[in-house]
Amino acid sequence: MSLHRFTSRTNTGVQVLRTRTFILNLSVRLHTLIQSVFGGPVARAHTKWNTMSGSDPAAAGSLSEEFAVPAHVEEVRSLMAAFAEQHGAAGRMVVLITSGGTKVPLESRTVRFLDNFSSGRRGASSAEYFLSQGYAVIFLHRHRSLYPYTRLYTGVNLLDCLTLEGAGLVTVDQRKLPNITKVLKRYQEVKSAGLLLPVEFSTLSEYLHLLKAAAQALSSIGSKAMFYLAAAVSDFYIPASEMPEHKIQSSNGPLQISMKMVPKILKPLVKDWAPKAFVISFKLETDPSILLERARCALDTYNHQAVVANVLDTRHGYVVVVTKDSQKELVLTDEEAQREVEIEEKIVQNLSHAHIQFINQKG
Question: Which EC number applies (predicted)?
Fold first, then answer.
């Protein structure tokens, strides 16, 4: 599809149409408030699927044989490639952020599925800090997960913020939306500059194919590309060929499920799809005693640049950025926590500096 179909009111020529391409879902309720009150369309595409065979080997088998391919993946790849090339040509670094969890269906006509607790908080907040650092951001996020800027108002009841005045005029109670003027101003600056490209996924299959498409799209800008893989991706799945078509009936008794391991897509991403990029993965553990060992094991296995290691209970205030030759503890002090400083700000500052060093080393 030609890029002119995505022409925008911004100077980047990028817009999401109300087609099957992909989603511009600016989070749950507050986004609707911002868009409806202050202007701008909300577009959501409905994914259609193709089942394709072929050889497309990842670390453990063929993606296209094991996982249904989204019909719109090539269109999204073209859009991401145009976005990356435009910003790369302008001297800007581009980060692909993955955010939120992946849904694993238990039935072909899905009623039940496996999920995880991820809200997308880390990915959404990190996107804001990368934008502040001068990056252009491709935000590959789970449907209805938290979104940059609107995440700050997740717990707000939309209707409580609005008042209907005479002549159909709707006003916003800014007291119920702290700092909304500042946040909205920043969001509109990012939008008008075309610095944020959202791409949405829901299922594990969508995520894997869209991540591969993103890696191939960003390969053209070499070391200026960063991959910040913060999504909570399922380790297990049920192949489509082994999945019941209809809803599993509880009358059949207790449920026993046999699941396969999800291919480790990080290896082909680093080795084949975007070999010159700066790649960061995340490692979450519940046992602090194995955290650094597992992080270093990941670096040895996949040969990427950094692992952000964190423990479930302390992940909002303490992480360790692990590289092949260093480890840096990032900690929020009590004073910083009172000022509502976020650990993601420190993570992004650390990794942005490391990325610049990486680019300089590559020449």
Answer: 6.3.2.51
